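Internal tracking record. Fields below are filled automatically when a chain is submitted to the structure queue. Please do not edit lines marked as system-generated. If the sequence contains nonstandard residues, flag them in the REMARKS field before resubmitting.
Queue: standard
Priority: normal
Entity type: single polypeptide chain
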Amino acid sequence: MRKRTLLMSATLLASGLTPLAMASAEAAVGTPGDVNKDGYRDVVVTAPDATVAGHAKAGAVVVLYGTAHGIDPSRRTVLTQNSTGVPGTAESGDRFGAAVVVSDLDRDGYSDLVVGSPGEDVAGDDGGGSVTVVYGTSSGLTKAKSVEDPWPSSHDAYGRTLAVGTYNGLNPVNGTAYTLSRDSGSLYLWDAGVGPSGKIIGNSLERSNVDVAQELTSMIETQRTYSTNAKVIQTSDEMLSELTQLKR
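SYSTEM-GENERATED OUTPUT FOLLOWS
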């Protein structure tokens, strides 16, 4: 077991049944906490200590759907790692649902679930933990993907706590790129060390999530592909020129 646990936010959900969103009628598009996009907020309940298919503390997440008359307990979806579309398999001690965040990550009007499984064994790492994004869609909660741990060798219990947000109103595109939104405000460009901007510090290292070696390899591959295509075009042009000369 490694020495420390990764804390991804200041929010730690208690085990057992923890409601995350309350139901109310709002606009049909973009209602916060509306998993099925019917205009009513839904309730997400976590049960990380639930037994699934005989596996103790495998964990589960339950979505109770809101209606014009409040929550309808008969309309619900139970998610486990054995559910259709959810990566992984329910195993003892995974604690799927130990942390859950509800947010419309892809801005399609359906709220999505970010689910932590801090007890998940990953690639031989006991209790390394995992995080799964389950997307709300028109066909239900059947589309999901895993979120890779960026520093798997430095901690355990990845996914024990979770948070979702944007940076200064920017929408994240990937690990290093963002797009503007209505909340971004005006764009300002400053030189380093001028105005509110930070400073450039010499003889220091900065942690980055960009794999420089991979980026360099991709650049070389692209350059070689370009050179090969250019050579093909040149050869074709020379052949066409020869044909033209023969015809004459």
